[in-house]
Each structure stands twice: as structure tokens, then as C-alpha cells.
Q: What sequence folds into this?
């Protein structure tokens, strides 16, 4: 078997090897990678930085893949020399490896602009997984971070750092952001969006020096001026890594020169990816590299035939809530081109199409990239657009995505990153027995790049696979035909803050008793209480902060944290019951006292007389923490469950949740306060706490799952807080924790909470803190009612009857 | 004062528009009964404040377009016709009242005099109608008489 040596274990090299494996004859393959990781999805590094994904999540080819294909993987070895006569490569570990064919996929290296004193502690590049980890280790909330470079990578890094809590400034040399993909207007819209997110953008500034004594303290600009910085990320672009090309005596310009068959100037040496230059162009995006890989695989295996004829460059900014798409020629000065534009500054939407000879030559979309797929297709196929001339900016919407899929031809590309066509996917379904998205990813690599085509892939599977079971996407009700998790993303990215607004834009404009409270909850949770609270969208209980009863009266349950009360409180409760002739006074199952049969108009005075906060017994929110007497009096208690329970109640009280949350804390495994059948339970043990979640003793009885065992009370409360906020953010409305935990699986719940990467945990706790900060005791509305007639019954202006 | 279908009705000053927040209802005690008035943004609609199902306070319901959803068991009642808007309750209905707004004041057209019996609350009064009657033109409507 001939020996193939691949230098570079990145996306381009490995994708090409995947293609080579489909051809025969077979090779004996060795892959060298200077990073110590298996092949991962470099595009998603910014998601790792933002804490949205862990490094495990972005692996494209696990070790088992290399083993299954008998590939000798040598990670952590940098190839330092190539001898093209002896046909050997030499590693920095001293190893010499012989090859019959050599594939260079060495990618690119970060471009470091000439800045004085750039080598300082706190200066980073952002190119690989190790850079990302180093950054994650370094960044902390409150740090001042400066990103040098306002291109795709720089902006994504900036957003990631901001999510980690840094104060971020982007410094860009050019007059507008992403100048290679956007025009000045588009760049302006983008800058406005970044500003809205709280990222400062400085344009037209050249960095001359990094300030600080050994450690970064600031950044200085040419022509004077400086800003402070604790952390600097250089993302000023990339340059093809062509050292080995020179070494091997290949023709090298900016990149290693290849022809349409991906051949270099040496018959047995090939190159693919960011390190090559084809027809004068070096590509830095993933889709072209995949196309090159396919051609190269044919050539190198002796099946020479397919030609690489260049790619349409397309770029999508992957920042949640900042939609930017650009493809093709986007400049204003194209010969003979016509420009069609649409702008809506209030909504931040900008669209620009460049037409040449009635065909699409380039497109820019900012603020709304929903139609990017269609434009991309027009670009690739060079379809004559004359008949569509009047709908170019807003192509007719496709109500049912299934129809759209049916209309696509087999040669149309579904996954732009990996270059997978509709035909390839259909072939995989019919010939390879693919019927889930996961199998489709594995088999065709579709949807493994930026992931934006996963919806299309799903629709295609649904249309073609007879037994395809779509992941059940729950919509709230018929008023808003959008899946709940998708809706949360929409509300977040579109910055929608009022129920009516959401209904008007994404729903039927009317809403009902099901979706209005659900949307109210979602907005409150997403904006941590900083939204336009619309009481008309709330159930009556949440308008008057009491539980409506069958006769239209209300029940009043004051907060008695942990069930611990005092003679004073009990006296006040008794006095209130007397004064307002409360028909029933009842001890509840939650160690609290319920005053039943209260008139709405008496509520404010009763609250004032009680002088106790609301127990939220009427809402989808934090109910209570039931406790046992713990260590204070009990002979068996080994943990202070009363203290821990009261503290937990204090930390979560006044917050809304997808459904009610009842908690418990017990001081020993005898479980007197039934913590193991609560939504969140703390179970005290000798020297530790078990934190359990998803228990139930209602319509359904379920023993809670163990989330984690920790040593201190503070750790237990933090674990509870992580789960609490995760449930608030990820559960469907009206989904109790016991359904939620079963649906998600406790393993995943652990991975997303107590075992999540630090930034993700920090994010959860920080958003919980914000929500808590803005929340307050609802019963304080007795003094400052939301509306003058909130609690009173209106009397007619004129006396009608004698 | 005017005569409608044999019942004396009169436009009565009831409440200030500002008393009723947008897309919410409020109950007004008129004599010995309660009327629920709703602010739909472009108009005010009024119905008897008793759900035909189990007497729930409609004024406390969530407004859904031109209907209100009773807070007790989610019966949906049209504020325009008074009829049940779900399949299950389509044959039930509540009395509706005509409304008019002048200088920020809501007027209701109320039948007068309404039977007033000492010691009887509005909730104890029998429902005014249970079944719609079909009019000559085929349109279903409530028999309020």
C-alpha cells in the first residue's frame, strides 16, 4: 500500500482524508497535527469562548474514527522539514517519516500587525482550542478586554469575552467593521448592533503599542491616544502557513500555488485549505476548503477528473442576535453592476444586492438573514432574476418549509459549509439507511459546520424518510406557531420586550389565556425583569397577587420562610382573620397558613396588617422551602436544614418560574420534610449535603434525582441555584421540574449545571442575580398599586336605581 | 329613556375610561348585580360579570381578541355576542350591554328598573339566559328579555 502523509489535522486536511477514504486505491495514512487535539470544528471556537459549547462538543472526528480507518494519528508533532527528493518529512520530535504522497494542509497562522512590545502577559491570539482555553482561563467579569481587529473572528471573540463578563472594546484599523464582507453602510448597521450589545467599537485606529510593564495595561494608538486594557486579543487576520511549501521547493506566492486539480508544482505533493492559493485567491472560510478537498481526493487517488473552479465566498457572523451574511462581490464599484438596497434603521435591517447582467453577483444582509439560503442559491446557479425583479429584496415567503425543499433541485446546496447537496442527502437516506439528523451528520457531514442548515436538513429528512420522527418541538398554542425554544431565541435576538409586540410580530396579534402568561414569563426571565410588564397578559392571580377561589374570592398565604414563625406573626394573622371575618384559616401542606375567602378589595389592607411578604402561593413561581428542625433541637439532625432552607427561600423568593417550585431541606436522611419529593431538595448527611432535583408528590409521585453531593451549605445552595436558573431558562412553560428532568435526562442536567464549564456556570448565576436584584415582594403593591383600580370595585358614576 | 323589546333601557354614566386598563376588565356594581366592562383599545365592551358555567368573575379573565376567558375554568365568552366561544359552551351565554364613550366617560345602556330584592346578592339571581334563540335571518343571538 502506498504511504500518504498528511501534515495538518485540521478541518481541511481531515475532510480531504474523509474524501480520499471513499476512493480506491487505499493508502496507508499518517496524519500529523501540531495541536494535541483530534479534528475539531474551528468555526465553533467562538461558541466555546462564549461558554455555549464545551471543547468536547465541537469534536468532528473522535479517536475512534482514526482507529476505524487505520489512520496513524500523531498529535503534538510539528513537521519541521520536508525533503521532496528523499520523500520524507521530519518532525520536531526528531522522527523521520517516508511518504509516497504528501498532503500539506497546514492552514494559516494569525497575522500579528507590527505593534511595539506585543509580547506581554495578557496578549492573546484566537486561532485554536489552546488559545481559547488560555483566554477562558484568563478572562473574568469586569476585566477590560480589547480586541484588535473588527473582522469575523475579532467580533466573535469580542462577543465571547463579553458573555464572560468582560468590558469589551473592538479596535479596527479600517473605517468600518468586516470591510471585506460589508460595505460602509452595512458596517455601520453592524457597529450599531455591537454597540447595542454593550461592545464599544473604535474605527480607523491603528494600534502602535501595547502598554504595561511585562503585563498588559493598555493599548496605544498611532497618532496618540490610548485606552486601558487588562487583556488584549489580536484577531487582525490570518496568513497562509506556507513554510513547508518553501521547504519542499514548491511554487509559493501568498499561498502554495495549486492548479484546478489541486496539484502543486511537485507531482507527489499536494496541498489543500487555507495554505493554498488557487487562481490568485487564498480562501479563509470552510466551504471552499471542503470543495477543494473533494477535487484533491480524486486527483491524489489517480481518479483525476473533477476540477476546482473557485468558490463563491460567503460569510456568516455567528453572534446570537447579530445577524450578518455576506456573499459574492459586495463592493459598489463593480463594472456594470446595479445595486438594490433596503434599509430600516429602527429595526436595524439592511439588505443590499449587487446585480450584474440580471444575475446576482453579491449580497449583504444585516439584521435579518432568513433569506440567505435563497440568495446563496441565486449566486451559485446564476439564475436569471428578471422575472423576480420586483421581489428581489423580499422573496415571497415560503409558509411551509416543506414546499421550499420540494422545489429545490438535487444539485442545490443544503449545507454551505460542508458543500452537501440535496441530492447527496437524498442518496444517503435511500442508500445508507440514514433517518435521523445525527446519522445524517455522521454520514454526509451536513450541518456540522456553522449549523445554520439544520432546519433544512430536518425538513428534508421529514419529507423523504417515511418513518422520520421529528424531534417534538412544543409550541405554546396556536396563537404563535413557533417552537418554544426557538421563540426564546427570537425574543432574545430581536430584543422583544412586550407580550403584545411578540404577538403582533410572530403571532396572530391577539393571543389567549395560554400564550399570554407563557410569554409574560418568558420575557420576565429573558430580560431578568427588565421588560415591559403587561398585567393584562397575566392571569388574575398575578394581577392581584392572590389565588382566586371558586366563588371569586381570594386566598392569602404570607411567606413563612422554612415554616418557622413567631408568636407575633401568629397573633397578627389571628387579628387579621378576626378583623376581616376570614371564613377559613388553614395550615397548608407547605408549612404555611392560608387565609381563605378574602375579598379582592380587602387584599391591600390585609397585606399591610399582616406585615409579612407574599408567599407567592398563587403563581408559577417560588413557593416555599419545607424544612425539618435540623440540628437546633432534633436528636438526629446532622445538618442545619432550617437555616439552609430559610436561606434558600430567601435567595429564590419573589422570582417567577416555568411552573411552581416547591423545595425542601432536611437535616438527616430520615427526610421528615420530604425533600426527596420536592422540585429541589437538600438532604443533609454527616459532613455533606445531597442536592436532589425533579421530585414530585402531586399528580405524579417521583423520587428526585441526585444532582450532586457537596460538602458545605454554600456549595449546596450554589448547586441549587444553578439548577434553579437552568430550569428557569430551559424548561417549557408549565413544565414541572419532574417532567423537565425526565425529558432532559439527569446526566445532561448535571453537565449543564454543576459540571458545566465555569463561564457557563457564571452566566447562570449572574442572570439569576440580575433577576433577583430586580424582583421585589409583590405585596408592596398595596402602597404603590400598578393601576388605581387594581384592587377596588368601581362604583357607577351616577346612581341608577332608587 | 327608551323602549327596546319591551324593556326600558337607559344610557347610564358608569366609569371613567382611565379606570379600565388596556385589555383588562373591571367589575362595576350596578344595583344588585355586577357588570364586567372591558377595554379593548378601540372600544369598551360590557357583559354580565358571571360566567354561564359556574358564575366565575369574567372581569378577572384574560382578554383574547374580542373574547374573555373565565379565570375559573377557562370558558371563553364572546364580549360582542355574550355567547360561549368554545365548542363545549357554545350554547351558553351572558347578557351583553351596549356601550358608548363621551368625554372620557363610559356609558352603559342598562335595563331599568332591575329587580332588586333585599338580601339577595347578584350571584343568587338566576342566569338571564341559557340558550340562544335563532332569529329570522338565521343569526344566533341571546334572548336577553
A:
Amino acid at each position: 500500500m502506498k504511504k500518504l502523509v498528511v501534515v495538518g489535522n485540521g478541518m481541511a486536511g481531515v475532510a480531504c482524508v474523509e474524501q480520499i477514504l471513499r476512493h480506491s486505491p487505499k493508502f496507508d495514512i499518517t496524519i500529523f497535527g501540531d495541536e494535541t487535539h483530534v479534528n475539531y470544528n474551528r468555526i465553533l471556537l467562538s461558541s466555546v469562548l462564549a461558554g455555549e459549547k464545551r471543547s468536547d462538543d465541537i469534536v468532528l472526528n473522535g479517536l475512534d474514527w482514526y482507529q476505524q480507518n487505520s489512520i496513524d494519528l500523531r498529535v503534538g508533532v510539528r513537521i519541521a522539514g520536508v525533503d521532496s527528493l528523499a520523500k520524507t518529512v521530519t518532525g520536531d520530535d526528531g522522527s523521520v517519516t517516508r511518504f509516497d504522497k504528501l498532503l500539506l494542509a497546514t492552514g494559516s497562522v494569525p497575522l500579528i500587525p507590527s505593534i511595539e512590545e506585543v509580547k506581554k502577559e495578557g496578549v492573546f491570539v484566537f486561532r485554536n482550542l489552546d488559545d481559547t482555553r488560555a483566554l477562558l482561563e484568563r478572562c473574568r467579569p469586569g476585566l477590560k478586554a480589547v480586541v484588535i481587529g473588527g473582522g469575523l473572528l475579532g467580533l466573535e471573540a469580542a462577543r465571547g469575552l463579553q458573555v464572560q463578563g468582560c468590558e469589551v472594546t473592538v479596535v479596527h484599523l479600517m473605517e468600518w467593521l468586516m470591510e471585506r464582507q460589508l460595505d460602509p453602510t452595512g458596517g455601520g448597521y453592524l457597529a450599531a448592533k455591537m454597540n447595542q450589545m454593550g461592545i464599544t467599537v473604535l474605527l480607523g485606529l491603528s494600534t502602535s503599542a501595547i502598554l504595561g510593564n511585562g503585563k498588559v495595561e493598555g493599548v496605544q494608538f498611532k497618532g496618540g491616544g490610548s485606552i486601558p486594557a487588562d487583556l488584549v486579543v489580536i484577531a487582525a487576520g490570518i496568513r497562509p502557513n506556507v513554510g513547508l511549501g518553501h521547504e519542499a521547493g514548491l511554487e509559493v506566492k501568498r499561498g502554495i500555488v495549486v492548479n484546478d486539480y489541486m496539484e502543486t508544482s511537485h507531482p507527489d505533493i499536494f496541498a489543500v485549505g487555507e495554505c493554498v492559493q488557487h487562481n490568485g485567491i487564498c480562501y479563509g472560510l470552510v466551504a471552499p476548503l471542503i470543495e477543494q478537498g473533494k477535487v484533491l481526493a480524486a486527483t491524489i487517488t489517480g481518479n483525476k477528473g473533477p476540477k476546482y473552479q473557485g468558490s463563491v465566498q460567503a460569510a456568516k457572523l455567528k453572534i446570537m442576535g447579530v445577524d450578518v451574511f455576506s456573499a459574492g462581490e459586495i463592493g459598489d464599484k463593480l463594472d456594470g453592476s446595479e445595486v438594490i438596497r433596503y434599509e430600516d434603521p429602527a429595526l436595524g435591517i439592511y439588505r443590499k444586492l449587487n446585480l450584474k447582467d440580471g444575475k446576482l453577483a453579491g449580497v449583504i444582509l444585516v439584521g435579518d438573514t432568513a433569506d440567505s439560503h435563497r440568495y446563496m442559491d441565486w449566486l451559485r446557479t446564476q439564475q436569471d432574476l428578471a422575472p423576480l425583479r420586483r421581489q428581489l429584496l423580499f422573496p415571497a415567503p415560503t409558509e411551509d418549509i416543506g414546499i421550499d425543499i420540494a422545489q429545490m433541485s438535487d444539485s442545490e446546496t443544503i449545507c454551505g459549509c460542508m458543500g452537501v447537496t440535496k441530492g447527496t442527502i437524498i442518496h444517503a437516506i435511500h442508500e445508507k439507511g440514514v433517518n435521523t439528523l445525527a446519522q445524517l451528520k455522521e454520514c454526509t457531514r451536513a450541518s456540522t459546520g456553522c449549523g445554520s442548515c439544520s432546519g433544512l436538513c430536518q425538513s428534508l429528512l421529514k419529507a423523504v424518510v417515511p418513518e422520520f420522527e421529528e424531534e417534538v418541538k412544543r409550541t405554546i398554542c396556536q396563537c404563535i406557531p413557533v417552537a418554544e425554544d426557538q421563540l426564546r431565541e427570537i425574543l432574545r435576538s430581536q430584543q422583544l420586550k412586550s407580550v403584545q409586540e411578540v404577538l403582533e410580530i410572530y403571532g396572530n396579534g391577539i393571543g389567549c389565556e395560554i400564550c399570554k402568561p407563557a410569554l409574560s414569563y418568558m420575557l420576565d426571565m429573558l430580560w431578568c425583569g427588565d421588560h415591559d410588564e403587561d398585567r393584562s397578559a397575566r392571569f388574575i392571580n398575578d394581577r392581584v397577587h392572590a389565588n382566586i377561589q371558586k366563588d371569586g374570592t381570594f386566598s392569602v398565604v404570607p411567606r413563612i420562610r422554612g415554616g418557622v414563625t413567631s408568636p407575633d406573626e401568629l397573633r397578627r394573622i389571628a387579628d387579621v382573620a378576626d378583623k376581616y371575618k376570614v371564613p377559613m384559616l388553614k395550615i397548608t401542606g407547605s408549612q404555611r397558613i392560608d387565609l381563605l375567602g378574602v375579598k379582592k378589595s380587602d387584599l391591600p389592607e390585609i397585606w399591610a396588617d399582616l406585615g409579612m411578604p407574599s408567599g407567592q402561593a398563587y403563581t408559577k413561581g417560588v413557593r416555599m422551602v419545607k424544612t425539618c428542625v435540623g440540628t437546633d433541637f432534633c436528636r438526629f439532625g446532622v445538618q442545619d436544614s432550617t437555616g439552609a432552607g430559610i436561606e434558600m427561600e430567601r435567595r429564590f423568593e419573589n422570582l417567577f418560574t416555568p411552573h411552581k417550585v416547591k423545595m425542601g431541606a432536611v437535616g438527616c436522611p430520615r427526610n421528615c420534610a420530604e425533600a426527596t419529593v420536592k422540585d429541589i431538595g437538600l438532604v443533609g448527611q454527616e459532613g455533606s449535603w445531597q442536592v436532589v432535583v425533579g421530585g414530585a408528590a402531586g399528580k405524579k409521585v417521583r423520587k428526585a434525582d441526585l444532582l450532586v453531593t457537596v460538602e458545605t451549605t454554600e456549595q449546596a445552595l450554589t448547586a441549587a441555584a444553578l439548577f434553579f436558573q437552568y430550569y428557569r431558562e430551559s424548561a417549557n412553560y408549565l413544565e414541572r421540574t419532574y417532567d423537565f428532568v425526565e425529558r432532559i435526562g439527569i446526566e445532561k442536567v448535571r453537565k449543564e449545571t454543576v459540571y458545566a464549564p465555569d463561564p457557563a456556570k457564571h452566566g447562570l448565576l449572574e442572570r439569576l442575580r440580575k433577576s433577583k436584584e430586580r424582583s421585589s415582594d409583590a405585596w408592596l403593591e398595596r402602597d404603590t398599586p400598578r393601576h388605581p383600580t387594581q384592587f377596588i370595585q368601581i362604583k357607577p358614576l351616577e346612581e341608577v336605581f332608587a | 329613556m327608551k323602549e327596546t323589546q319591551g324593556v326600558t333601557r337607559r344610557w347610564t354614566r358608569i366609569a371613567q375610561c382611565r379606570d379600565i386598563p388596556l385589555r383588562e376588565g373591571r367589575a362595576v356594581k350596578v344595583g344588585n348585580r355586577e357588570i364586567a366592562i372591558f377595554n379593548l383599545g378601540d372600544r369598551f365592551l360590557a357583559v354580565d360579570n358571571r360566567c354561564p358555567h359556574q358564575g366565575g368573575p369574567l372581569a378577572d379573565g384574560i382578554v383574547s381578541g374580542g373574547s374573555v376567558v373565565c379565570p375559573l375554568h377557562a370558558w371563553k365568552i364572546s364580549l360582542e355576542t355574550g355567547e360561549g366561544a368554545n365548542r363545549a359552551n357554545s350554547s351558553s351565554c351572558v347578557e351583553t350591554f351596549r356601550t358608548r364613550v363621551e368625554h372620557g366617560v363610559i356609558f352603559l345602556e342598562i335595563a331599568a328598573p332591575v329587580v332588586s330584592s333585599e338580601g339577595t346578592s347578584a350571584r343568587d339571581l338566576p342566569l338571564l339566559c341559557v340558550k340562544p334563540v335563532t332569529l329570522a335571518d338565521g343569526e344566533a343571538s341571546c334572548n336577553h328579555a
